Amino acid sequence: MVEAVWLTLKLATVTTVLLLLLATPLAWWLARGRSPIKPVVGALVALPIVLPPTVLGFYLLIALGPESPLMAALKPLGIRTLAFTFEGLVIGSLVYSLPFAVQPLRNAFLAIGDEPLEVAATLGAGKADIFARVALPLALPGYAVAALLAFAHTIGEFGVVMMLGGGIPGETQVLSIEIYRLVESLEWDKAHQLSALLLAFGFLAALTLLLLEKRRSAPA
């Protein structure tokens, strides 16, 4: 049981850090870019919100399985499959939780408006400086929301990790799968303990999000 808690925290932490790195340029482009394919990319990013997790997990299982073209390209590196591995769970979690990181960052970048960026540009700042010294500090509340949502969403995922990981103890058996296993084996007391732990975490995460939103909307 402790092993499942540790594995879940590890997965959520790794996923959250990687998501913030990957979501930043994507969210910036969705907020500030002018490409005609933005709606298509935005829809693809949001797809995990409306797609059943088992469907997403099924296609990820195929994509990361030993017969996929992706794995064929990685065979020279000694990688035969990423299915039923912790690394595969990380990839699945990145895809599954991507919209929960991109959307808050996109909204934060949109909320900045054009004026601060234009002022920085007129003062001779380059694009990288404008982003690092103006946009990024102003978007920090969005980063807090994105990190919390991505972390909490990864903690609670079940369908994707079940399809892609299979619940291997010490490797892919995260808390949600452990609870399912305990219920199946009629170990109700242990299932109650883990469920209560996730319930408390979910409440604290939701409360923190509300407090962050209240702070952001409060008049200066």
Structural description of this entry:
It is built from eleven helices and no strands. Helix content is 79%, strand content 0%. By secondary structure, the chain is mainly alpha-helical.
What percent of the residues sit in helical stretches (DSSP H or I)?
A: over 70%
User: What structural category arises from helix and sheet content?
Assistant: mainly alpha
Averaged pLDDT, please? 89
Q: Please describe the biggest sheet, giving its number of strands, its sense, and whether it closes into a barrel.
A: none
What's the count of strands? 0
**Termini separation:** 46 Å
Report the total helices: 11
Strand content: under 5%
Question: What is the H/E order?
Answer: HHHHHHHHHHH
State the low-pLDDT regions, or none. Answer: none
The gyration radius over C-alpha positions equals 20 Å
Shape: globular
From the structure provided, what is the oligomeric state, counting identical versus distinct chains? single chain
Keywords:
single chain, 220 residues, mainly alpha, 11 helices, 79% helix, globular
Layout of secondary structure:
Elements: H1 2-32, H2 38-50, H3 53-64, H4 69-74, H5 86-112, H6 115-122, H7 127-138, H8 140-156, H9 159-165, H10 175-184, H11 188-217
Helix pairs in contact: 1-5, 1-8, 2-5, 3-9, 5-8, 5-9, 6-7, 8-11, 10-11
